[in-house]
């Protein structure tokens, strides 16, 4: 099969339908190209529970071994478990997952040693160019001495490392409902939470890459409904929902109400600053709540605002020596985790913060959730640039606002802000708005949408 790589190589990863858009023969070429571009003598690989994942991962390992590279396969794992292995073993890594995408998709998230990201500007373009050349001219001849392919289980070590980064020794007993969505949280949660004073109520822990219960995408409110109902029915203290590859974690409080990822970011930021003597840089993307930089400053830290996307966050983490970073999409990045994102570590922080005091989660997070947000609202447009220009024209003459173009267009006033930015992959504009109260947010949101939608 001659794969069209323009359809599957994205800004930060490889992703497409199997076997329609790519298959094991393509994966083998990606493994060989990854070996060439990283120049590594050894790499580590892992995969999620999708039916196609073991075959694709194995083919990638064969491709890398054909270039003389030794491969350590850690098998079934979450994406942050793969990052752990890359960091702890100091090896480049490749994770086979399509995260929250439907079952017929699969993909590769690649990193250099120490979990440093591989994106278009950091090796992915070169990997794609090699694979395209080999698709046309044939794969290179294997080297005289191929690499070895071995197995290693890192789950216990990954869990132990996370447990060293959060003090859970003094928490009170808690009842927590966990919705793994038939994804990799069902594999990692039992080991990470073992031995804690928790009553864990598991939902959809059976590993099943066909996602028989609901999509493993907690960002969509429809996929949180089962968890919300179960938290209320159980009288639980909180609920946790993981996406398919378990690198993102969403939280609901004891009432079954979602806790915004911005509030989780602010809570974890305050705890990480306390761990670091009340000093440190905290990264947040430009559509996280105003609450985040406010809480960071109140706790002695320095907030730094970035574009949306993990490559920008990780680059800024490295450049500034930041101790923590958070995004509105529930990606949480930790200096002590090689600047990589781990929803599991953020979940442990929430459990620790709740368990260290007697009040309910809704009261605890209220101090970190000070404004009203719209959530992300998508509008299909024929011409993204023209519609953003129309928004700029509508607001740039006003004395009460400032405009900036760090990522799309952000319009800021004393009591509100909104950001509109284009999707990289679809003819959409994404709007996020926030204000001091619900009525003002609705007004700002509706005025912006009227211009966007023309």
Automatic annotation (TrEMBL):
The organism's place on the tree of life at top rank: Bacteria
Keywords: Isomerase, Magnesium, Metal-binding, Phosphoprotein
Alpha-D-phosphohexomutase C-terminal domain location: 376-448
Pfam families, per database record: PGM_PMM_I, PGM_PMM_II, PGM_PMM_III, PGM_PMM_IV
Residue span(s) of domain Alpha-D-phosphohexomutase alpha/beta/alpha: 7-133, 157-256, 264-371
Cofactor(s) the protein requires to work: Mg(2+)
InterPro entries listed in its UniProt record: A-D-PHexomutase_a/b/a-I, A-D-PHexomutase_a/b/a-I/II/III, A-D-PHexomutase_a/b/a-II, A-D-PHexomutase_a/b/a-III, A-D-PHexomutase_C, A-D-PHexomutase_C_sf, Alpha-D-phosphohexomutase_SF
The family this protein is said to belong to: Belongs to the phosphohexose mutase family.
Name of the molecule in the record: Phosphomannomutase/phosphoglucomutase
């Amino acid at each position: 099969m001659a794969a069209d790589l323009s359809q599957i190589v994205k800004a930060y990863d490889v992703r497409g339908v199997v076997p329609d858009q790519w298959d094991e023969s393509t994966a083998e070429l990606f493994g060989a190209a990854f070996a060439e571009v990283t120049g590594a003598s050894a790499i580590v690989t892992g995969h999620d529970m999708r039916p196609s994942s073991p075959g694709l991962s194995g083919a990638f390992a064969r491709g890398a071994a054909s270039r003389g590279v030794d491969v350590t396969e850690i098998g079934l794992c979450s994406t942050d478990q793969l990052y752990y292995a890359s960091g702890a073993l100091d090896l480049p890594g490749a994770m086979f997952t399509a995260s929250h995408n439907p079952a017929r998709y699969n993909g590769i998230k690649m990193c250099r040693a120490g979990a440093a990201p591989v994106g278009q500007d950091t090796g992915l373009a070169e990997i794609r160019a090699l694979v395209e050349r080999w698709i046309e001219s044939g794969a290179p001849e294997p080297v005289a001495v191929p690499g070895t392919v071995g197995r290693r289980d890192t789950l216990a070590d990954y869990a132990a490392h996370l447990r060293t980064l959060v003090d859970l020794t003094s928490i009170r007993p808690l009842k927590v409902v966990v919705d793994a969505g038939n994804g990799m949280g069902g594999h990692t949660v039992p080991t990470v939470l073992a031995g804690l004073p928790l009553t864990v109520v598991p939902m959809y822990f059976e590993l099943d890459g066909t996602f028989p219960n609901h999509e493993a995408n907690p960002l969509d409110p429809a996929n949180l409904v089962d968890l919300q109902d179960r938290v209320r029915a159980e009288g639980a203290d909180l609920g946790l929902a993981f996406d398919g590859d378990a690198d993102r974690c969403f939280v609901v409080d004891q009432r079954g109400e979602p806790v915004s990822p911005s509030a989780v970011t602010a809570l974890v930021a305050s705890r990480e600053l306390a761990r670091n003597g009340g000093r440190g840089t905290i990264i947040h993307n430009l559509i996280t709540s105003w609450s985040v930089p406010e809480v960071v400053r109140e706790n002695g830290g320095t907030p730094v605002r970035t574009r949306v996307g993990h490559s920008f966050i990780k680059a800024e983490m490295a450049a500034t020596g930041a101790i923590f970073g958070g995004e509105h999409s529930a990606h949480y990045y930790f200096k002590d985790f090689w600047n990589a994102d781990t929803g599991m570590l953020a979940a442990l922080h929430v459990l620790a913060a709740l368990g260290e005091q007697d009040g309910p989660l809704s009261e605890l997070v209220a101090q970190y959730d000070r404004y009203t947000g719209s959530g992300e609202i998508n509008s299909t447009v024929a011409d993204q640039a023209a519609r953003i220009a129309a928004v700029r024209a509508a607001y740039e003459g006003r004395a009460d606002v400032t405009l900036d173009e760090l990522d799309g267009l952000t319009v800021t006033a004393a009591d509100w802000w909104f950001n509109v930015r284009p999707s990289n992959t679809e003819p959409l504009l994404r709007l996020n708005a926030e204000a001091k109260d619900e009525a003002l947010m609705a007004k700002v949101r509706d005025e912006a949408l009227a211009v966007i939608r023309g």
